[in-house]
Hints:
Blueprint: H1 2-5, H2 15-20, H3 63-76, E1 80-84, H4 87-96, E2 103-107, H5 112-125, E3 128-132, H6 139-143, E4 149-155, H7 167-176, E5 180-184, H8 189-192, E6 202-206, E7 220-224, H9 229-241, H10 247-257, H11 260-278, E8 284-288, H12 298-304, E9 312-317, H13 320-330, E10 335-336, E11 346-349, E12 364-368, H14 374-386
Parallel strand pairs: 2-3, 2-4, 4-5, 5-6, 10-11
Antiparallel strand pairs: 1-7, 6-7, 8-9, 9-12, 11-12
Helix pairs in contact: 3-10, 4-5, 4-9, 11-14, 13-14
The structure holds pyridoxal-5'-phosphate.
Pyridoxal-5'-phosphate binds next to helix 4 and helix 5.
Amino acid sequence: MSERSRPPANEGPARETLMAQALHYIDEQTGAVTPAWQPATTFARRDDAGFYGDFRYSRSGNPVSVHLEEMLARLEGGAAARVFSSGLSAFVCLMETLPHGAHVVAQRIMYHGALDWLMRLRDKRGLKLTLFDQSDPAGLTGAIAPGATDLVWIETPCNPTWDITDIAAAAEAAHAAGAKLAVDATCASPVLSRPFDLGADLIFHSATKYLNGHSDVTAGALIAASEDDQWHELCTLRNYMGSVLPPFESWLAIRGLRTVFLRVGRASQSALAIARHLDGHPALEAVLYPGLPGHPGHEVAKRQMPGGFGGMLSITVKGGRQAAADVCAALRVFVRATSLGGVESLAEHRILVEGANSIVPDNLIRLSVGIEDVNDLIADLDQALQKL
Ligand SMILES: *Cc1c(COP(=O)(O)O)cnc(C)c1O
């Protein structure tokens, strides 16, 4: 099904080329090599009442957001993409397409905001929700109900433990039960994993993270393997909810996306170097990173993330919550802030942001590795851990 709708692979320039050139953009009127920022909220009709192009009113899309969507569809190899004013607004909109009483299967550890929203839908709106243990390879199959499950939502690597869910196995299990598979691929980014090649039906990104990559745009994206009824409803709902990404944010995101391969490649290499350096450190209980051979998801990650294991890792510190707080306070190069996927490295004592439902250990520090000199980052972590 999805194969028919998606453009054939290996046709035309490589994804790196397409992104660097914003799809070989050349403005027809001026020859400009970057897409123009177009802030209009309304678009004129001609004398015959027809429109000049595809645009009428900016709640349903603007020329800049549509160009970004074309880039994302090409980047993921999907049939279509839509961008939203945040990752969570994309998630909320997708959940809104599900009928009353729908059954959703999701990971016990996943992005906390999306999990909180699912629980809210369960408690207030009749959603049936089954959570599975993402660290158990058999966990998902037990949670799916053949003929009853509508959507399987996975996040891999997942926030903030970086457990790996096998995308191909999840797609097979979801499809066998008549459900769709949606993958939150925010942390892998399109550079390191290709969920459509492994059978996913929908790909989600918080574009706030690696896609934009500069910590200056809040945005979300959904990409579909095929434009089916649910997809059309999603587009309609985005219009009702008014959650399209505005022109300026779309413009910045295009600019950020042009360097996504360079940024993610560098972050991923540096994160691996940091994880190897810290592995076995006497001040640490554990280093959580799928690129380490001891990580339970390492073999699956090698298969489904052939380009690298990503720029995200976590450390659990000996001495509990206070020790983790002390390490965060001692960092001088890492910036202490939430979020991830930007060019600057960030460290976060995760317990401070996760809600009451969280089962994340209170001595866990999440690191988002940026593109700085990796020796500066390693030296910073070393000096902070030495103070324990
Ligand atoms: C940040 C994030 C989200 C939510 O996206 P926003 O852009 O912050 O709304 C969802 N999933 C993952 C994995 C994230 O890191």
